[in-house]
Amino acid sequence: MADDSSPDRAGTLSPPPDAADLELYRSMLLARRMAEKTRQLWTDGGVHGPGHLSDGHEAISVGVAACLREGDATIGTYRGHAHALARGADPEAVLRELLGREGGVCDAKGGSMHITSVEHGYFGSYAIVGAHLPIACGLAWAQRLKGEGNVTVCFFGDGATNIGAFHEAVNLAAVWQLPLIFCCENNLYMEYTPITAVTPVRHPAADRASAYGLDRVVVDGNDVEAVRDVIAERVQRARKGDGPSIVEAMTYRLRGHSLADPAAYRPEAEVQEWARKEPVGRYRTVLSERDVPAEELDGVEREVSELVDEVAERALAAPSPQGETAMTDVWADGGSAWRS
Amino acid sequence: MADDSSPDRAGTLSPPPDAADLELYRSMLLARRMAEKTRQLWTDGGVHGPGHLSDGHEAISVGVAACLREGDATIGTYRGHAHALARGADPEAVLRELLGREGGVCDAKGGSMHITSVEHGYFGSYAIVGAHLPIACGLAWAQRLKGEGNVTVCFFGDGATNIGAFHEAVNLAAVWQLPLIFCCENNLYMEYTPITAVTPVRHPAADRASAYGLDRVVVDGNDVEAVRDVIAERVQRARKGDGPSIVEAMTYRLRGHSLADPAAYRPEAEVQEWARKEPVGRYRTVLSERDVPAEELDGVEREVSELVDEVAERALAAPSPQGETAMTDVWADGGSAWRS
Amino acid sequence: MAELTGRDAIRAALEQEMARDERVVLLGEDVAPGGVFKTTPGLVDRFGAERVWDTPISEQAIVGSAMGAAMGGLRPVAEIMFADFYATCWDLVANEIAKTRYMTGGQVRLPLVVRGSNGGGGLGFGAQHSQSAESWAMCVPGLKIACPSTPSDFKGLLAGAIREEDPVLVFEHKGLYGRTGEVPDGDHVVALGESHTLREGSDVTLVGLAFTVGICEAAADQLADEGISAEVIDLRTLVPLDVAAVLRSVATTNRLVIVEEGPGQLGWSASLAAIVSDEGFDDLDAPVLRVCGASVPLPAAGVLEEEVNPNAQRVIAAVRRMS
Amino acid sequence: MAELTGRDAIRAALEQEMARDERVVLLGEDVAPGGVFKTTPGLVDRFGAERVWDTPISEQAIVGSAMGAAMGGLRPVAEIMFADFYATCWDLVANEIAKTRYMTGGQVRLPLVVRGSNGGGGLGFGAQHSQSAESWAMCVPGLKIACPSTPSDFKGLLAGAIREEDPVLVFEHKGLYGRTGEVPDGDHVVALGESHTLREGSDVTLVGLAFTVGICEAAADQLADEGISAEVIDLRTLVPLDVAAVLRSVATTNRLVIVEEGPGQLGWSASLAAIVSDEGFDDLDAPVLRVCGASVPLPAAGVLEEEVNPNAQRVIAAVRRMS
Ligand SMILES: Cc1ncc(C[n+]2csc(CCOP(=O)(O)OP(=O)(O)O)c2C)c(N)n1
Ligand SMILES: Cc1ncc(C[n+]2csc(CCOP(=O)(O)OP(=O)(O)O)c2C)c(N)n1
Ligand SMILES: [Mg+2]
Ligand SMILES: [Mg+2]
């Protein structure tokens, strides 16, 4: 990893290498357990409205977060819970948001598709495909003007590579040499349609990089260390003023596009194949092979599961927001008056 | 030229080769004289509103039109007079439109930026950069469904390659394998800004082709025969169902972006260099070298100049449209009622 | 007559029109696998992949292609999954589709339909997936606008839209996809521009559109219990707008409440209210009142969404304010 | 006081604010060479290329970058050359900029301005370069909207917009860029939300916005000759909307005519008319009348553009209709 990439604030002070590995594992597990809990809360009827989970994608958000420091920004999509958590967002505030309770991270106004935690550098989840890529340009522009060497990482799906905003944003970032990494989570599908059916190149992000004078970078998005290493290099370049990158990380959703989607359109063999490659269990195997004792790994798992159970319980016990909340925070003065 | 590409309906029945050459010359001259006339009418105050001429670009519209047949479609930008004329639009109706007179090709409702002549296969001039590229996809889709082997050619500027609609349209055309040729007229500038200042690749259209699985094609856009030959090959492929192409034709505006623009931002040496390469005089030299007698060339010039003078005179004598015209043709029933 | 859901009624209209006229083609994201709101299942099997195109996520390319295809002689029906996404292709809709016939002096016809889900409906879709975009469209001359409220109209108005020679946007309220109702069998077509008076009344006129028609009916039920007789009009289309029917009704009831789901700041109810306040001035015994959504983005939590949406209680309160 | 054109007043506001606050940055197409409407000449020389960015033709990237930059602590001013082009980036404006503060529970502020040319003004720009897009914006809660009518307000309202903590769209009527007027020297800032009563009158209130303020004044002049005393109010901003001032005026004049350039089908005048017809019901001796643009795309030819635009004669005719 690059010298100037310190671990995310969710981590602890300069941990020894194996502790950092365990931290990657813990962080992926947190995302996984939170997704599982969310699915359960939805099945139970507590989570209302649409929800998009990213079980299967965890290595990407966690691998990226491991390269970032305070002052760096991330920004993502409706499939954004893991991204918020990886930067250190409070799991309880996230669950309260999903459940529509007081103390939700967005005051219960955003919901599942808009999880945001600006204090942790996660500038939000945007639910209209592609829109946040131009926004990411602006975040990176501000960072560049401040001159502190901070960077922005922008997550998006394979499907987003075909919308106009993608093209405008990557082009602008390249022209302006912004400190910005575009990180495509290619999970092979837009909603129900395989991305290859609607894209004339094999790698919808990486194969477009040359159109903006950028390198072609593809990484195994289910290998957390591979993601971390590739992103670390790109972050280092960006910090030095060497401009933006596109990284395409190959991954797969373990489940449907949204909570309501049984994902019947995917061939069973493909699903099975990717289940074998899923990042959390796979990384456990890696760590075991590095002689991390099973008890230690079990301990992390237990700890994370307990944490998620606890915060879910507290979130479920939280009250609904006051009705008046609906009329606040349109404007910076806290209100919503539009006429006198 | 491909066997199945017959000359545009503006031409005559299968002319012998040198007659075809003269026809290219005549057609370019018509565009040039019309541009000059329009500039004069604007200076005299007769043309109201914005106007974008394409003196310097003539080889492109004419070279393309020479590859097309009835049933083929073209579509272009606000800089569209030459494109309309090359397909056979009536010069007088065009000038009436520019002057805002009765009998204008768009009933004086479109003006300079929206010259359209559907009966000649020119589906219009669109004034919002990039918008007509997706529209071209639809024209080509309809042609493909009809199965008559017709094609669409879509003209746009270098500046248009950075807008989202470009990306969406070229991608869709490639995925759907549409019979569509995207023809970029790269005149090195958007309005006042050199295209290289805002694009991270040298050839804003051609260097993006690979992002859509297409070939990289650049042509000298001031060489009418080169344009014709490159386009003819691409048209032939499209007719056979081999899908879309992007062609980038290099050219230069002889004057400003619009009638009101003195174009002071362009280096004098660059202007001079391109003045030497301008397509009309250059093609006259080519024809002279092929032993076409000067009198014949002079004859074409005189004929075209007289035609343009005559139609201008008639157009200037035409009355303004009736006020009620403003309230017609919103709807297919001819009216504009929106309530009962 | 069959009892259908809104979504099945849409499918029925598409099937009816595609069978009738082979120029009718569909395109949109995930339309071949049946659409995320399950409005197009099986159509690709019946009509083939050349007439039911799955597109990339490229709204500009979708509606732009629809326009070009219409110019080329087809009668495309494009799907925009959520009406909020019109914002990603508004240039094609508002600047090209709406204006090209006029700008070209009538050289082209654009018989095309763009349809998609609209509004909130208490489903928790939040600020970017719940807007009432029909008012955006009404700001732009050149677009016809249909907003059906019943399964019967989901079928009939969509078929009517497909048979129009002009571009029509059909806004399908997502809260109505699952509601059932009687739908005529066979060829069922409703012409655009005719409102529907659901019940007659003498004391007040309630005007609704799409989801708010049900709110008007619920309010009318409760008002009836209080002895107030409300006439309920379903506008059905905004362009053409059946102002005449509303004025006729107000001539009898002398009172008008308009119920719009979108934000009160600006929306179609303002136009109707302004027109009736003027042209019905002498008939009105009380000001025309509008019950609208609050002028805020739509919040996600159920309790908050309820807080900002119009409902029958607010309509009743408005009626009481009038007397 | 200096006599400035509208375009120079804009430049003066930008220079004033960029000198005052280094977080203020500009971006847009051709802004460094001075802009196609010559509103930004010389700014790149004074403030440097890092603060005056020339962009590609990428409206989504322009306004999206402005939003991101605001989230990152800058105070960007983006130029959209013609307001019609908002359609190419409407998603960023209507779905992101307008909603993100609310959707995130107030986690972000978005102090940004998007400015650009609006309206027709008889310049022959035609259907795709002459729209009155301020009404599109008013359909979407979360955007402040300023529409200056004088060089003084071109400067003051733009400076006020830049100092706002919320996103503001400034619509500069292209017919006013060349008109001159007195502009205060030095720090000149006008707060958003306060209308301006240009002249007092007792018989009728005329309300205008941007270009139509001049139409109201011309009408008031002619009405004065006929012995009719018209009060003229320049709304200045649509959000916040100074309804109170209009109601106060109507309480005296008992008559209101609103003059909007955009199509009458739906626009801001409908909202104001609906509100005043309700809240001013008892004060009104006649229906609120709206004089609006025709509900057609704007035609190119001068005689046709005149045909569809509001003008003083139509305002006078409306006033006569009232008495
Ligand atoms: C502009 C736009 N069009 C369509 C949608 C509906 N939609 C939501 S997610 C999605 C698929 C996105 O696919 P991808 O970018 O690959 O991300 P993934 O969901 O696979 O993570 C679609 C089409 C949307 N939100 N925005
Ligand atoms: C979406 C949009 N943005 C901006 C403009 C203003 N504009 C008109 S022409 C032009 C430059 C276009 O450059 P290019 O595509 O190279 O075509 P050229 O004019 O050089 O032929 C610009 C920026 C526009 N019409 N549409
Ligand atoms: Mg995907
Ligand atoms: Mg150019």
The end-to-end span of chain A amounts to 57 Å
Number of domains in the coordinates of chain C? Answer: 2
Level-1 CATH class name of the largest domain in chain C: Alpha Beta
Radius of gyration of chain A: 19 Å
Alpha-beta classification of chain A: alpha/beta
- Specify the helix fraction band of chain C: 25-40%
Amino- and carboxy-terminal Cα gap of chain C: 41 Å
Total number of distinct structural domains of chain A:
1
Residues in β-strands, percent of chain C:
15-25%
CATH-defined superfamily of chain A: Thiamin diphosphate (ThDP)-binding fold, Pyr/PP domains
Helix content of chain A: 40-55%
What is the overall silhouette of chain C? globular
The oligomeric state is: heterotetramer
Enumerate the distinct ligands. thiamine diphosphate, magnesium ion
- Largest pleated sheet of chain A: 6 strands, parallel
CATH architecture title of chain A: 3-Layer(aba) Sandwich
Question: How are the SSEs placed, and which strands pair?
Answer:
The complex is a heterotetramer, with 2 copies of chain A (340 residues) and 2 copies of chain C (323 residues).
Chain A: H1 17-43, H2 58-65, E1 73-77, H3 81-87, H4 91-99, E2 122-126, H5 132-146, E3 152-157, H6 164-176, E4 180-186, E5 218-220, H7 224-239, E6 245-250, H8 268-276, H9 279-289, H10 294-317
Parallel strand pairs in A: 1-2, 1-3, 3-4, 4-6, 5-6
Helix pairs in contact in A: 1-2, 1-3, 1-9, 1-10, 2-3, 2-7, 4-10, 5-6
Chain C: E1 2-5, H1 6-20, E2 24-28, H2 43-47, E3 52-54, H3 59-71, E4 75-82, H4 90-97, H5 100-103, E5 113-118, H6 134-138, E6 144-146, H7 151-163, E7 168-173, E8 180-183, E9 196-199, E10 204-208, H8 211-225, E11 230-234, E12 237-239, H9 243-253, E13 256-263, H10 268-279, E14 289-293, H11 302-308, H12 312-322
Parallel strand pairs in C: 2-3, 2-4, 4-5, 5-7, 6-7, 10-11, 10-13, 13-14
Antiparallel strand pairs in C: 1-8, 6-12, 9-11
Helix pairs in contact in C: 1-7, 3-4, 8-12, 9-10
